[in-house]
Amino acid sequence: MKLILDTANLDDIKYFNTYYPISGVTTNPTILSREGGDIVKHLRTIREIIGEDKELHIQVTETEYDKIVSEAEAIVKAFGKNTFVKIPATDVGLRATAALAKKGIKVTVTAVFSAGQALLAATAGAAYVAPYVSRLENICEDGIGVVAEIQQVLDCGDYDTVILAASFKTAREVLDVALAGSGAATVSADVLKKLLSHTSTDTSIAGFAADWKKAFGDHTLSELLKG
Ligand code: G3P
After folding, report:
1. Cys-Cys with 23: which of 2, 57, 174, 225 at CB 3.0–4.6 Å?
2. What is the atom index within ligand 1 of the atom nearest the CA of 134?
3. Residue of 31, 132, 177 with the most ligand 1 atoms within 8 Å of its CB, for mutation
């Protein structure tokens, strides 16, 4: 499962792009509103940090068909071919998705809360569908179950659409969507760090260091290899 970073914070993007195997960055209007300022310049900086080969997902702000289509084209023109245009799962959004897919523009249909919406998005030619896992859990729905159901729907048809699971509050949810067959997940910096950290790893590392020091003092293995 591809892991994508769900933030527009430049420090987090620099850090995770360096140390973690992320495939790109996703944003949405709320995420961008936290950064403020010259947001076009900010998005250009994100593109510079991740390079032109990684995915950058940017959501449209227009709500009428013609304007969504032209805004999507302008977004791809400004931020390069590996830019995915996020369009919410609405009737006008699906119409725009179909038109953009025909022009070769990659669309992430976002704010997906049901397998029915995902089926329509896939049929319209979406590159990704983005179900919101923890927002589903927050309304007593089965977020992981919806992801599993969407994957089943995609497996039953001749679609090129991949699930980009989104909206996570816990590392366990990320693991569960991977087990449910999701092709990608977009995760906040906080939750992504929780996937790696484990107190038993820290304890094990401390034990290795103590045992080594007892036997070989302050010498490192590379020093000993030099003879
Ligand atoms: O990128 C959209 C999605 O990840 C939203 O997440 O945490 O606002 O529910 P959240």
Report:
1. 2
2. 9
3. 132
Ligand 1, atom 10: nearest CA belongs to which residue? 167
Residue 167 and residue 63 in one domain: yes
Q: Domain span at residue 227?
A: 198-227
Q: What is the CATH number of the domain that holds 109?
A: 3.20.20.70
**Residues 14, 85: one domain?**
yes
Looking at the CA of residue 57, tell me the nearest atom of ligand 1. Answer: 1
Split into its structural domains, the chain has a count of: 2
Encode burial over 124-133: b for 16+ CB neighbours within 10 A, e otherwise. Answer: bbbbbbbbbb
* Nearest CA residue ID for atom 7, ligand 1: 167
Q: Write out pLDDT tens, residues 148-190.
A: 999 999 999 999 999 999 999 999 999 999 999 999 999 999 9
Catalogue the active-site residues: 86
